[in-house]
Amino acid sequence: MALSLPPELQQFAERQIASGRYTSLDEVLLAGLQALVEREHLYQGRFEELRHDILVGAIEAEQGQLLDGAEEISAIRQRLRQRHAES
After folding, report:
1. Which of 30, 39, 65, 82 could make a disulfide contact with 60, Cβ separation 3.0–4.6 Å?
2. Counting beta carbons within 10 angstroms of the beta carbon of residue 28, is it exposed (0 to 12), middle (13 to 18) or buried (19 or more)?
3. What does the pLDDT read at residue 28?
4. Confidence band of 7 (pLDDT split at 50, 70, 90)
5. What torsion, rounded to 10 degrees, do the Cα atoms 33, 34, 39, 43 define?
6. Is 64 left (phi over 0), alpha (psi -120 to 50) or beta?
7. From residue 39, how far is each of 33, 46, 49 by CA, in Å?
8. CA atoms within 13 A on the CB side of 9
């Protein structure tokens, strides 16, 4: 497969090889792709968590279990002030 990298990425890959961390451009590219796969898995997991949280919030809202935003922020600030005063 022919691959043309922008100069800055080509230089980065060459530095990685020169450092001894990788022995070839293929290894550098493979490591980059593996990192991308891991990141995508993390994003997908976080997306599913957010979807679940939204669903729970929608159900709670339908049941009238809503919190007043201003009151909650005030309570959080008060707890933070108390923690700061205790330390």
Report:
1. 65
2. buried
3. 97
4. very high
5. 90
6. left
7. 10, 11, 15
8. 8
List Cβ neighbours of 29 (8 Å cut-off, separation of 6 or more). 3, 13
Provide the residue type at 73 as one letter: I
Alpha carbon of residue 65 to chain centroid = 30
List pLDDT tens digits, range 14-73. 999 999 999 999 999 999 999 999 999 999 999 999 999 999 999 999 998 888 889 999
Q: Which amino acid is at 1?
A: M
Q: E strands, 17-56, where?
A: none
Q: Return d(Cα 77, Cα 33) in angstroms, integer.
A: 43
Top pLDDT among 23 and 3 is at 23
Structure tokens at 28: 């550098």
Half-sphere exposure of 10 (CA within 13 A, CB side): 5
